[in-house]
Amino acid sequence: MNNTPKVKLGIVAVSRDCFPMELSANRRKAVVEAFNGEIFECQTTVENEKDMRKALAEVKEAGVNSLVVFLGNFGPETSETLLAKEFGGPVMFAAASEESGDNLVGGRGDAYCGMLNASYNLALRNIKAYIPEYPVGTAEEVAEMISEFVPVANTLLGLNNLKIISFGPRPQDFLACNAPIKQLYNLGVEIEENSELDLFAAFNAHANDSRIPEVIASMEKELGEGNKMPGILPKLAQYEITLLDWMEEHKGSREYVVFANKCWPSFQTQFGFVPCYVNSRLTAMGIPVSCEVDIYGALSEYIGTCISQDVVTLLDINNTVPADMYESEIKGKFDYTLKDTFMAFHCGNTASCKLTCGTMKNQMIMARALEPNQEPNITRGTLEGDIIPGDITFFRLQSNADAELTAYVAEGEVLPVATRSFGAIGVFAIPEMGRFYRHVLIEGRYPHHGAVAFGHFGKAIYNLFRYLGVKEVGFNQPKAMLYKTENPYK
């Protein structure tokens, strides 16, 4: 993806001065050998604050942007936590388990104990750090922990260099997509809010842009037989160039950009098209564009992009699966109840690579109000089709009405079942979805938009949300685990 950072890992071993330094250094070397990836091995082992500064200079000079602090023995809690503080980027703490029952005198490191002191000192200094689910292990186990840290670190780097650009206020009756911006700043994210008029002026300034034919050719190639409304492509190409130019001109001090844009109803009457297909194309480039000025939706999409390193989408948690459709196409073929299933939909913002067959169409719902009983014109521009079957992760990070960070994550799949409907849409299945819908989505006052990553990334997303300070991350709890608000008397 061309709009996400690249992690450069480094590892620093720490050693308490009453333990052999060689124990920690040798265990660090073993971790580096076991790690299946590129990692800078700092040769300075930190025993004190002067060592900390020396190690810090080494990793900075090497271009390290994500750091593993490794307790090869008990570790010096002051120096190791100051290292995390002064490093300034994503930091992971892990510790070495003991190696042999025949070496528990001179070769005992007590890092199991040291991790407790490290975690407490991190809290005293208000330092955020990634601590694995079980942070003490062999060289091979610590190497696996580092691999799980990478997508989290990648996303943290992205958020710290992200600008969300929005155009227009939310449409009427879409208060659910509220976006208190204080938490964006707390996350290190910048926000630039603009008027629809700013976007319209920029669009008009790109009329007859010399790049339009090249973009049209790209669209034609991508759409193939789905290019059913070729007459709208010049306007869509003009709009795509407008957004990409705005991104480059308005990045400012930031490296990465996403958009949250107004897309109806006045958009169609003024611009003369719907922007869905362009939104899908930018999202495929790693530049998510959320619908309906959903700022936290765009943020969630970017999180999914960084973690999965793949194209994501944003969908409405939209409608139930009809009982007759469940009976004929799902029951007995897949291990889901009717209430585990639902249909997720949006007008046409899902990238063509995530549709079974993408076709250019017009937005049927908008056409009812804007151009009823006539040939579609200003409502053209959606990319429609069934979403590809396979594993998915449904999730969202949100600032609620009280400006508190909330989040949920649930793993499931898109079923290989024809939707027989319109838009970019799929039949989704999440275990215990009915209960999750009631006791997380409704109880948590979440909006109707959810971000979708194509694959199972629940562990990494959950770890990220906890790192970001989300106190309670909702998930689809198994049947035997009651939600706090769930009535135990069924």
Automatic annotation (TrEMBL):
CDD domains named among the record's database cross-references: L-fuc_L-ara-isomerases
Superkingdom, natural source: Bacteria
Keyword Isomerase tagged: yes
Endpoints of the signal sequence: none
GO MF terms, alphabetically ordered: L-fucose isomerase activity
Single GO cellular component term: cytoplasm
One GO BP annotation of this record: fucose metabolic process
Keywords, ordered alphabetically: Carbohydrate metabolism, Isomerase
One Pfam family from the record: Fucose_iso_C
Stretches assigned to the L-fucose isomerase C-terminal domain: 345-471
Name this polypeptide is given: L-fucose isomerase
Source organism per UniProt: Clostridium folliculivorans
Lineage, opening ranks: Bacteria, Bacillati, Bacillota, Clostridia, Eubacteriales
